[in-house]
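In the present case, backbone shapes were mapped to integers, as reproduced here:
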Amino acid sequence: MTEQEYLDRFRDETPRLRAWGEFVISEINNLLINEHGQTIYERWIKIPPTIRIKNESSLIAKAFILNRGWFSDIYNDITDKVGVRYVVGLTDQISSLTKLIERSDKWSESASKEFDDWKLADPRIFDYQSAHFILTSITPITYNDIEIPTGTKCEIQIRTLLQHAYAELSHDTLYKSNITSEPEVHRLFAKSMALMETTDDMLLRAQTSSLIALANLEEIKTQLKSANKQHLPSTVFSNKPRENDYLIDQLRPLIKENLPEELNSFLTRFSSTIAGRISTRKGTQPLFELEAITLVYYLAKRKRTSLPNYWPFERSILEGVYSDLGIAPPWSID
């Protein structure tokens, strides 16, 4: 096959390759949204996925110059004529997205031999934790009025944002320039790779801790709502989730695992007292409109001396809470 014959075949196939890439993006997006919802999709996907049709000069160079016998079939063995890249936030999202893709019955997936060989040969790359594989159509598909035959291939890459930044910069510098033998360049890229690997690990750990804290916050909110409904059925609380969440989060260090029992015990005794005070005060103090205000009353009674250390607002508000319960605030006692 001559270079011109190669290009003619590629140009004839390009509309089908483009359609297959667009179909792959559509299917993956649907898989993620159907499984986790639109909010998770928007949270995970940091760069909107697009298709990439291989540049003709790069294709010819790969097939006829850089091949060096690697491909047994210089046309069919080049599997990245069309590619799709997903850029996510953290490495655990790579694994989750990969599992969704593997469950689809629209294609067969296989490892990218080229990437695997490159990964083993070059320890400098930060991209080793990313996912690179080939999606091959298993039945004829019509998409956007274009017939996509069985066996059409698309390379898919899933990287984190940090991996994407490193891979793009290192590829441009190390592999598209004439300084590949400069030791200082490799040393600096190795240092930056190590730093980004550490950053990725720290971000993943921070996210895990954040999710645990969020689950705990949601549990407390549920317990508060249930207690308020039972003991303060006539009190109307405002729907201000950000303010409510903030107040609860600030007070969380004071909350123990036995909150439901303790809170119900407290409200059994004091609900009639605080119900009227909440209704009166919320007209001038918006904080008393929140579901979490009953938590504040509870902590004022149970954690009288500790509560001011975690209180994020003016003391005058907290002073009113103590007053409603008939107890002196700790700062007024010499």
